Fold this sequence. Notes:
By secondary structure, the chain is mainly alpha-helical. It has three domains: about 5-60, no CATH class; about 70-150, DNA polymerase, domain 1; about 180-270, no CATH class. The chain is built from twelve helices and three strands, in the order E-E-E-H-H-H-H-H-H-H-H-H-H-H-H. The protein has a three-stranded antiparallel sheet, covered by helices on one side. Helix 4 (about 85-105) crosses helix 5, helix 7 packs antiparallel against helix 11 and helix 8 packs across helix 10. The radius of gyration is 31 Å and the shape is elongated. It starts with 5 loop residues before the first strand and ends with a helix.
Amino acid sequence: xxxxxxxxIARGERRWLVRVYLGRDRETRKRTxxxxxxxxxxxxxQAYLTRRFRERDLSRGVEGLQCTVDExxxxxxxxxxxxxxxxxTYSDYAAMLRRYIRPAIGTRILASLSxxxxxxxxxxxxxxxxxxxxxxxxxAVLRAAIRQAIRWQLLLSDPTQGVQIPSPRCREMSVLNxxxxxxxxxxxxxxxxECLFAVALTTGMRPSEYLAPLLAGHRLGSRNRExxxxxxxxxxxxxxxxxxxxSKSSNSKTANxxxxxxxxxxxxxx
Length: 270
């Protein structure tokens, strides 16, 4: 078999080294090869070599045999991403690839990109102490590009399949128990935001919910009027918790005092 095309080299019992010629490096002008060790019969190694031949030939669809990952990503961003997404999304994709993907595998030939090389790129990100969310986001962007390459018939298989990515870390939500809530409200009684803290704690509203009316220049409605109508909002909230102190749900030290189905304020103080 011609050395310029590809070859199968025996490396032991049922162990073969498959080499596929990819062309010459643009900078060094040295010959480059895709190398892969195959375990099994010679027929299995020959089938793998045939698949690699077709994948190599299909890579000529963009910029010929020497299409690198960087060149393909530029082509993908320009033709498949930019016309379909908002400018902010396009910038995020481009920045994610520029920071985390291109430095590791950008110079690799697209047709010869392997799962091991992608896994090594992710290990570099993990070694830099990047969050699991960042690594998973980078993986999602790269995988979208690779799948488009398959649809364009530039690749036969997806090299991102089988790559291990870090699992997302789900932090357990912590809540105040009854004593902590009372202490917080006593401290809030001396704050100008006393009313806001009391409403937030007793209703379980998110910050975006109880701050949105204020930021929009609107009143908080009936709840805010009721909160202002009492002498001390923090004391009123403490009375609310004190009234429920004997209930079954409040006996637990970890009772969730911020549940979203809390009764409306005006229902407690008609």
